[in-house]
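User: Structure tokens for both sequences below?

Assistant:
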Amino acid sequence: MAMVLAFHIIFAAIWHWHALFMAIAEGLWLRTRNPVYLTLTQRWARGTAILFAVGAVSGTVVSFDLGSSGPVSCAMLGPSSACPSRSKALAFFTEAIFLGIYLYGWKRISPLAHWLAGVLIALSGVSSGIFVVTAMPG
């Protein structure tokens, strides 16, 4: 479990920054209409999608590892981790939904709505990380 968690934390941390930079670059493109920012945004969007996929798969393995330790982890974490864990799941699904809107909405939604989807990806990613840290025992 430690090896999978170490792998997952690296990709998750990089992903959160990647999503934030993607949203900032698109915001700069909306403000200045400089094509360099649009190119940067589109390249970071591809990287963000790949990092999200790798993080989602490794995070699923981490969840199964936690669940397979059964009574030990349940006794250690206890009921205090239920709310942050559920909130983390909600934040993860929010990330996934808005990443889908972001990736497939380039020419389908308004530029402002597209940028807001990117901002929501970054915000839900950061909140997801906060909920994970909150759920862990002291």
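Moving on to the next sequence.
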Amino acid sequence: MIEIRLKYWTRSRWLLAVGISMLGVHGCRRNELPLVPVRGLVKFAGGPCPAQGNVTFAPIEVEAGLPRRPGSAAFQTDGQFAVTSFQKDDGLLPGRYKVSVTCYSGLPDPASSDPWGDVSYVPNDYQPQELIVKRDSDPIELTYDVPTKKKNR
């Protein structure tokens, strides 16, 4: 009777261990995606950024079989950024992306209809070139030089 209980207990532990390891493998699938690191610098008329801001990467087209996942990166006044899609600074999936830069004066006001701040430093007609990310490419280094815009109140 002790031998039967021992066999049952050992078999149950083995099944539990297999189940946990299967969950672990399933949870790592995101790490298997072909993400390409993307880092860069935002400048304003060749100089420093007037305020903190964001660079967003909206997928226009993605490689077949991959999820349609946008990326984004915050920057401070030094302009340096690293793109995040799933986990901090992991990069972008292979595909073609529309790029947008936002940078506002003033502090964001959650009670306001404009949660970004007072005035945009980015001209309305500024549109960075689309970004194409290829599978297995080296890390991508970008520079966006935003033309200055006069403040209008």
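User: Anything stand out in the second?

Assistant: The chain has a mean pLDDT of 81.
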